[in-house]
Backbone:
């Protein structure tokens, strides 16, 4: 039986390469990325949480909103906040600049989850995918210790916990192009995302 899990969306970046506009509100096929993610996550989880330091911008969505607890700007800080506030032992984490996360990939990771694992994460040729992964509350202390060193790399604490890697072949069975891991950092990435969906604005 899969342990209870909360869906967590991180929305904390400065978006400097996108002109400062929150990436959650960038539109693909006329729809904000956050709407796409919300729909996918709602299909997988009863409880959803958004981590942001500007909560007033997200009041239109029906989800819990929490803020960072540690003053180190990084995705790892967001994972920590999501874990701290989650009502469940586990969370699934993704980011507001990842518009193509598929529910089948989420469910694939949930299928691999057992109580003995602290992290369940896809492992591809590009490396581990820490912003499309499951984390246990047992990760809280290791993350806190790491953030005290100001090291923002998510995978740094992994040697101190029990990690289950889900191989690329398993992920490709439900997401052949691995689009679930596509993230938008630049205007060129946004154009590519729109091209993937056939959005006319990519032309």
Residues:
């Amino acid at each position: 039986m899969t342990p209870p899990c909360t869906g967590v969306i991180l929305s904390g970046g400065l978006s400097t390469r996108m002109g400062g506009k929150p990436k959650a509100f960038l539109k693909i096929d006329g729809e904000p990325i956050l709407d796409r993610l919300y729909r996918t996550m709602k299909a997988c989880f009863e409880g959803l949480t958004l981590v942001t330091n500007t909560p007033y911008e997200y009041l239109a969505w029906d989800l819990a909103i929490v803020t960072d607890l540690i003053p180190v700007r990084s995705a790892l800080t967001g994972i920590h906040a999501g874990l701290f506030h989650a009502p469940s032992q586990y969370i699934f984490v993704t980011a507001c600049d990842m518009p193509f996360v598929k529910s089948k990939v989420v469910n694939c990771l949930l299928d691999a989850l057992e109580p003995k694992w602290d992290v369940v994460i896809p492992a591809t040729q590009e490396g581990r995918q820490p912003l499309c992964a499951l984390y246990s509350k047992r990760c809280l202390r290791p993350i806190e210790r790491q953030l005290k060193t100001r090291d923002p790399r998510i995978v740094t604490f992994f040697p101190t916990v029990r990690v289950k890697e889900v191989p690329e072949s398993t992920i490709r069975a439900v997401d052949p192009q691995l689009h679930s891991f596509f993230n938008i950092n630049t205007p060129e990435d946004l154009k590519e995302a729109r091209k993937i969906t056939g959005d006319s604005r990519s032309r």
Q: What stands out?
A: Residues 5-202 form a domain with the Spore Coat Polysaccharide Biosynthesis Protein SpsA; Chain A fold (CATH 3.90.550.10).
